[in-house]
Amino acid sequence: MNLEKPQIQRLHVAARYSEAAVFNGVVYLAGMVPECEATDIKSQTADVLAQIDTRLAEVGSDKSRLLRVQIYLSDIRDIHGMNEVWDAWVLAGHAPPRATVQAALANPHWRIEVVATAAQA
Fold it and tell me: With respect to CATH, is domain 9-119 assigned 3.30.1330.40?
Protein backbone atom coordinates (compact mmCIF):
# COMPACT_ATOMS: atom_id res chain seq x y z
CA MET A 1 0.00 0.00 0.00
CA ASN A 2 1.45 3.35 -1.07
CA LEU A 3 0.85 6.01 1.61
CA GLU A 4 2.83 8.70 -0.18
CA LYS A 5 0.85 11.90 -0.70
CA PRO A 6 0.59 13.24 -4.26
CA GLN A 7 2.99 16.12 -4.79
CA ILE A 8 1.89 19.70 -5.35
CA GLN A 9 4.08 21.62 -7.77
CA ARG A 10 4.14 25.39 -7.22
CA LEU A 11 5.60 27.88 -9.69
CA HIS A 12 6.78 31.43 -9.18
CA VAL A 13 6.27 31.31 -5.43
CA ALA A 14 6.21 34.64 -3.60
CA ALA A 15 5.64 35.35 0.08
CA ARG A 16 1.89 35.78 -0.42
CA TYR A 17 0.97 33.53 -3.35
CA SER A 18 2.14 31.26 -6.18
CA GLU A 19 1.38 32.14 -9.78
CA ALA A 20 0.51 28.50 -10.49
CA ALA A 21 0.02 25.19 -8.74
CA VAL A 22 -0.32 21.74 -10.27
CA PHE A 23 -1.98 18.84 -8.49
CA ASN A 24 -3.14 15.52 -9.95
CA GLY A 25 -2.85 16.81 -13.52
CA VAL A 26 -4.82 20.01 -12.92
CA VAL A 27 -3.21 23.45 -13.28
CA TYR A 28 -4.53 26.26 -11.07
CA LEU A 29 -3.45 29.78 -12.02
CA ALA A 30 -3.51 32.75 -9.69
CA GLY A 31 -5.33 35.85 -10.80
CA MET A 32 -3.40 37.16 -13.80
CA VAL A 33 -3.34 40.95 -13.95
CA PRO A 34 -1.90 43.34 -16.55
CA GLU A 35 1.84 43.84 -16.48
CA CYS A 36 1.77 46.32 -19.36
CA GLU A 37 1.49 50.07 -18.95
CA ALA A 38 -1.55 50.29 -21.25
CA THR A 39 -4.79 51.53 -19.75
CA ASP A 40 -7.28 50.30 -22.38
CA ILE A 41 -9.17 47.04 -21.90
CA LYS A 42 -8.05 45.45 -25.18
CA SER A 43 -4.34 45.86 -24.45
CA GLN A 44 -4.73 44.73 -20.85
CA THR A 45 -6.75 41.70 -21.93
CA ALA A 46 -4.15 40.70 -24.53
CA ASP A 47 -1.42 41.05 -21.89
CA VAL A 48 -3.26 38.86 -19.38
CA LEU A 49 -4.10 36.18 -21.96
CA ALA A 50 -0.44 36.07 -23.07
CA GLN A 51 0.53 35.51 -19.43
CA ILE A 52 -1.93 32.62 -19.24
CA ASP A 53 -0.36 31.11 -22.38
CA THR A 54 3.09 31.41 -20.78
CA ARG A 55 2.11 29.90 -17.41
CA LEU A 56 0.28 27.00 -19.04
CA ALA A 57 3.23 26.27 -21.35
CA GLU A 58 5.54 26.13 -18.32
CA VAL A 59 3.63 23.10 -17.03
CA GLY A 60 3.03 21.39 -20.36
CA SER A 61 -0.48 22.65 -21.02
CA ASP A 62 -2.16 25.22 -23.26
CA LYS A 63 -5.41 27.12 -23.74
CA SER A 64 -7.06 24.14 -25.48
CA ARG A 65 -6.96 22.41 -22.05
CA LEU A 66 -8.76 25.15 -20.08
CA LEU A 67 -11.35 23.75 -17.71
CA ARG A 68 -12.74 26.98 -16.25
CA VAL A 69 -12.06 30.72 -16.44
CA GLN A 70 -13.21 33.52 -14.15
CA ILE A 71 -12.88 37.07 -15.47
CA TYR A 72 -13.09 40.11 -13.22
CA LEU A 73 -13.59 43.52 -14.83
CA SER A 74 -13.30 46.76 -12.91
CA ASP A 75 -16.07 48.11 -15.16
CA ILE A 76 -18.52 45.64 -16.73
CA ARG A 77 -18.99 48.09 -19.62
CA ASP A 78 -15.54 46.86 -20.81
CA ILE A 79 -17.00 43.43 -21.59
CA HIS A 80 -17.37 44.11 -25.34
CA GLY A 81 -13.73 45.17 -25.79
CA MET A 82 -12.56 42.30 -23.60
CA ASN A 83 -14.70 39.81 -25.56
CA GLU A 84 -13.23 41.05 -28.85
CA VAL A 85 -9.73 40.08 -27.68
CA TRP A 86 -10.97 36.91 -25.94
CA ASP A 87 -12.82 35.69 -29.05
CA ALA A 88 -9.66 36.07 -31.17
CA TRP A 89 -7.62 34.18 -28.51
CA VAL A 90 -9.82 31.26 -27.52
CA LEU A 91 -9.62 28.22 -29.80
CA ALA A 92 -12.75 27.34 -31.76
CA GLY A 93 -14.44 24.37 -30.17
CA HIS A 94 -12.40 24.74 -26.95
CA ALA A 95 -14.13 27.64 -25.21
CA PRO A 96 -14.10 26.82 -21.49
CA PRO A 97 -16.90 27.41 -19.00
CA ARG A 98 -16.52 31.06 -18.04
CA ALA A 99 -17.88 33.64 -15.64
CA THR A 100 -17.42 37.39 -16.09
CA VAL A 101 -18.25 39.79 -13.29
CA GLN A 102 -17.56 43.35 -12.22
CA ALA A 103 -15.29 43.63 -9.20
CA ALA A 104 -13.17 46.18 -7.37
CA LEU A 105 -9.62 45.16 -8.29
CA ALA A 106 -6.61 45.63 -5.99
CA ASN A 107 -4.93 48.19 -8.26
CA PRO A 108 -7.05 51.03 -9.67
CA HIS A 109 -5.09 50.91 -12.96
CA TRP A 110 -6.09 47.30 -13.63
CA ARG A 111 -9.20 46.88 -15.76
CA ILE A 112 -9.10 43.06 -15.78
CA GLU A 113 -8.00 40.06 -13.73
CA VAL A 114 -8.36 36.47 -14.95
CA VAL A 115 -8.25 33.23 -12.96
CA ALA A 116 -7.90 30.01 -14.97
CA THR A 117 -7.88 26.28 -14.31
CA ALA A 118 -6.61 23.81 -16.92
CA ALA A 119 -5.77 20.17 -17.40
CA GLN A 120 -2.17 19.25 -18.04
CA ALA A 121 -1.51 17.84 -21.50
Answer: yes
